[in-house]
Amino acid sequence: MTTSHESAHAYFGGMAESYDSLIRRAVPRYAEMTERLLTYLPSDSKRVLEMGCGTGNLSLALVERFPNSTLTLVDASEEMIALTRERVEARFREVTPAVSYVVSRFEDLEFPAGSFDLVTSSISLHHVRDKALLYERIRELLADGGRFCFADQMRGEPESNHLVNWEQWLAFCRQSGNCTADELAGLVDHAEAHDHYTPVSEHFSMLSRAGFGEIDCVWRNWMWGIITATAAQELN
Ligand SMILES: C[S@@+](CC[C@H](N)C(=O)[O-])C[C@H]1O[C@@H](n2cnc3c(N)ncnc32)[C@H](O)[C@@H]1O
Q: What would be the CATH architecture of the domain defined by 8-231?
């Protein structure tokens, strides 16, 4: 596995074909987390934005879950967007869902304010260092009352909790049938270069400052967690 990449999306773009196999061997309870995230998405969301579609594992479920909505799938990796498009078109050939594919960094997204009723994401936003700014931008993209629901890797708090989570992750990766030593070295190298883990308490504060309310952590397993929030009527 190649380990040196300038950005998180270059790293993922370079492994687009092997991603699906690796992610299930490298993220404990990956399928359960995706299912749980879906459980919390309001079914009446008409305009849905997914940030960091990767190979489309959540995207495919979103197309099924929101058959009458418009979906916008964003990823900075052209390879990932191409793969997701291929999978969506192959699976939903008969129905032609209303899906747009956007190659863009999260930091550079350009949609008018209030463009979405739901913004969702799975294990992608921890690649952004400045989450306060990101959450302000996401709040602007949402209509009042819209929902922001995402799964991601979080920092444990205090640091001793984070170390427990980190060791548990390494132990999971090393289990027989999961990651090879080379794969694990690549993952750790990527994490050190591109991952920015934030404690749940800081996510809550930044979300609140950005104009979100009803903030909840609805699932947690070691480093991974799911946070849901509502775009408040009035900005704080
Ligand atoms: C770990 S993958 C997650 C993919 C998928 N959501 C899943 O749950 O399997 C992270 C994705 O985020 C994308 N990504 C990382 N940083 C990004 C950024 N700053 N802007 C846009 N996309 C980014 C990567 O290209 C990659 O496809």
A: 3-Layer(aba) Sandwich (3.40)
